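Q: What would this complex look like in 3D?
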Amino acid sequence: MEQEQMAMLQKIGEARFTCVELGLYLDTHPEDAAAMADYTCYSDKLTGLISAYEESYGPLLNFGQCNMEAGSWVHSPWPWENV
Amino acid sequence: MWIYEKRLEYPVNITRPDLKMAKLLMAQYGGPDSELGASLRYLTQRYSMPDDRVKATLTDIGTEELAHFEMIATMIKQCMQGATCAELDQAGLAGYYVMHDHGVFPVDPNGVPFTAAYFQCTGDAIADLTEDMAAEQKARATYEHLMNMTNNEQLLEPLYFLREREVVHFQRFGECLEIVQGIANGRSSCSCRNARRRRP
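A: Here is my prediction, written as structure tokens for the whole assembly.
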């Protein structure tokens, strides 16, 4: 995996993690407007990062979540393989 | 419905085989307090929860645990990568090899296979959430024991991350327990779309 691809995955990982963490907090505090604003901000950022990544390196999400060119889901690296 | 994302929640890249740790990591893959047990426990218990906030928490934490199950599988796989039969034998993995080769099967470090008997679903929200809080603490303790058994930085980094998640999940389940205790004591109203329909 090239350096640029790893750097993009790292950024996606950071934004996704922030969304997971804020999402869990919002599960028990659904009325917290400040947390919801933070969540929306990172969610927008994550969507942009994933689109940019998928354009260069193929789909991260399947089942209709992204544009999947023939074979690109199957042949891109699987996460448990060494990078 | 679930959607798979083709990446790990936190990076794992172990470049040197480490069979001692491959065997020990199985505690968190197929043991009683494993990530698999955690995920199935929460995803099973959510159907009998009386409050939407608690249903959401169990669904989302149960889902995150599946991502941790995948991280542990990746760590075990990479720790066993390229190991010979003699090396596996020396590490106490001969029996594992005979049954599973280099596959990643949910057993504990002693070879005991995973079972649904490791978790409960009593249908009682207070009992189940109390179990969930204990489960997070047991998993945290197990991660600390694993970290005490290695100096391998490539393993310690993801283990630190996973340990920290147990602490956050414990916090969220504590809030869930307060919510259902509040409902039981009549202190707060149930946050549930169908609550009115259920009451006479």
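A: To summarize the key features: The longest helix of chain B spans residues 153-184. Chain B has nine helices and no strands.
Q: Very helpful, thank you.
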